[in-house]
Amino acid sequence: MAITREQRLEIYKSINALGSIWGQSGIIDKVQFLNRIWELRLMSSSDPRFKTAAEDAKKHLIDNDDWDDDYVFLDRFKLLDCDEEEFLKFLNVVISPKVRSDENEIEEYISVIESLLPKEYEIIETTDKNGQISHSVLMKNKDHGEKELYPIGVNQNDIPFFTNIVPTKYPAFQIRTNIWDDFGYKTSSELYYWDDNAQYEPIGRLKILNSEEENTSKILPQSFMSLGAAFCSLGQSEHYYIKLKQLFPNRYQSVLYALKDTAWFSEIQYRFENHQGFKRSLLRDGATDALLSSARRKVERGEDESWNFMFKTKVPYSEQPIDIQFEFGDLEDEDNPYRIKALIGANGSGKTSIMKALVKSLIRNEGCFSPSHPVFSKVIAISFSIFDTFISLRGKSVLTYTYCGLHDKENTVMSVEDREARLRESLIWINGGEEGKVFGNTQLIKRFCNGLEVVFPKDWVDSVWTDGGLAINTILEKSRTMSTGEAMILNLVASLYANIRQNSLIVFDEMEVHLHPKAIRQMMSLLFKITKEFNSACILATHSSIVVQELLADNVIIIDKLQDGTPELRILNHESLAENLSVISDEIFGEASISPHYKTFIRTKAQNSETLEALLQQLSSRDLPPSLALYMQASYEFENRRNND
Fold it and tell me: Is residue 491 located within the same domain as residue 377?
């Protein structure tokens, strides 16, 4: 049972009544307090003078001291509506010995919180290696590790780790740190495995980073089952990952999650990728940069360079499952023409249901795939449909899932203010934030600006960035004067570049909704560009013949629905690339059997025309010359009428 909004408010008010939420003066400041709950440097500012919430908070909580507690927690950071994990972090920070040193004061806060928590929660006491006592608010009946936070399909690690000491029980892992210095960061270690007989063997080098301490050995627990969220790690060779899988074929992912491995768990990677220690130390060797994006796939799929897979699923109102073959080829191949696939068919054929089932199976590590489960690092879902259901998909996953559609968490269409807030967050991320500027995010900024040029004039794009980065406030100001469609496209382009990573899968439902034909072509050009840049793939569910006209026939899957509701897949009988739109539409939707209105109109006019020239004159607007298709249809109807007379 989650802590309700009303219960959160009562807990907050009761804490506030005890004294200072912020703890003892002089231990940590208010910005540091908030940083223990939220990643302020990754959040946008509410003050247009600043880019990040970290700058915003410093100005108003330290420099000016003009924010009161209710505004900070209830309005600015929405404590009553935030994720459960964030609310528990808030409680744990309030009772942390790093915030208040008086044990009696801590006990007073614990007593009040404990009395107001739902019965499903408890406060446990732990002691660290230095003997310091701390307390944590957790749900009952769960191991006091991170079992409830482990990704779907990954079991909790059950082999202990020991740091710089001989294990006291077996089997066990041993981490031996060293003093190798990477531009001030000391993260290097060696990992060993000790079996039941106390015999050990090396697994390989790894680097472990802590978000707050440059020397990892100072803060690594002497023994642990799983590292906390402030840590991340990266093996320094492919052999490291292969060795772990050889030793633990059924639980190597549990070991990697316990070490918060960034090559295996993209969500962890994305939390740390702008941290200077991650860039300076974990990725110092150029080979590890490639390892970050390839290790999981190579270990899981060996030397198979293709991204092809078969997906079996059912659609509503049909008992028969269908097998859909997605052949993306080698995504690392620059000349690959198979990155984008289109599912096309009439309303009710099951396109969106198939897409949602695919996304759900990928992020929850379930479903029926062959020859094996695809190893994408991230799934990005976009939907312009009013019946959007992608926002509802949830679940902590081995890969990362991001929703970039038009709906909010309550599945209602986002307000103008919410869309602008998301745009700001995306632009800040692309710009690199404060840490990104130190190391340069130039490549991503240039890629984003080149992407903007696909849909906006070059002089407009040139006006919103310099060598120093994006002019975020200028972009936001310009967006306020755009049409709804233009603003929506700008938001989408920013969201894509802010969220896409190497080997992502973009799933786009009903792209053509709200877009005119020119914008559809622009969006297709952008998708070709961005999937190539990031070695990624895309699946589109569409009704648009324009989309199909941009693709090779091998990239088009037609979905028909038989009379009994069973879906049926078929392929195009001729090449679709650059084909006439009417021909494409006729073959996909069977429109050849439906007589268009224009044929009836021409036939009627032909009945009263003495000559073909007279007929053509009646069919012309402002004496414009007829198209070849109009001329041929008029000639046919005129001759047919004359032959029947």
Answer: yes
